Amino acid sequence: MSESCSGNCASCGSDCGERKAESLLAQLNPKSQVKKVIAVVSGKGGVGKSTVTAQLAVAMARKGHRVGILDADITGPSIPKAFGVSECRGADQSGLYPALTRSGIQVMSINLLLDNDTDPVLWRGPVIAGAVKQFWTDVIWENVDYLFVDMPPGTGDVPLTVFQSIPVDGAVVVTSPQALVSMIVSKAVKMASMMHVPVLGFVENYSYFPCPDCGKQLAVFGESGLDAVAASFDLPVLARLPIDPSVARAFDQGEMESLATGALAGVVEAVEKL
Fold this sequence. Notes:
By secondary structure, this protein is an alpha/beta fold. It contains eight helices and twelve strands. A hairpin with a 6-residue loop joins strand 10 and strand 11.
């Protein structure tokens, strides 16, 4: 360290031995209280990640926890639809107040800020990433025990922004029984590892269809290869969810809080252990 050093590494271009690593974490709104942040991720779209996020939030709320959902899927937001909410609770000089569902789950999504929920968000990556960061810095999350972040699929700008800007305590990886599962899941797990975010385990959605006549579990999308992939990462399969038309119907009607959530008991247990 030179005699002229001010101690402010952010304003200095020197590569000296005393240089401090600059944190990219964004500051939580001063009026917010968030204890744990859980990212719900997937390596590809179409696996029901938002549905799992909504069900998991409901399951945690039923355990007596105060829960929030940050919808980080800016170009494909669906969380407000799942809970039948359409607008925030207002704003003041301190920040923006998220919507409240019937059971008290706090929700923030870009669709709550649009004039029409069918309007497309035609923003480039940096602007989208900035909006997600503002959902952390400008929204007032009130006494939240568990904040679930519904991530967009893949490993692009927004997942990177979330992992770098928000102190994520753990990630749940959602997948489906397809031949591509190994490659898809590996990408999601490796990204979390590179961002130093622990992966709690996997949820296999659309795992099977229970025959209404004989009760047999039919592997509509083929036999699952998730067990082998999970073993290769030494991670558990926390839940296997069936193809259930009632879930899709509840999502479309904004009635996710009416569904049973017992199938997610393993995920709830893993989250509560954080």
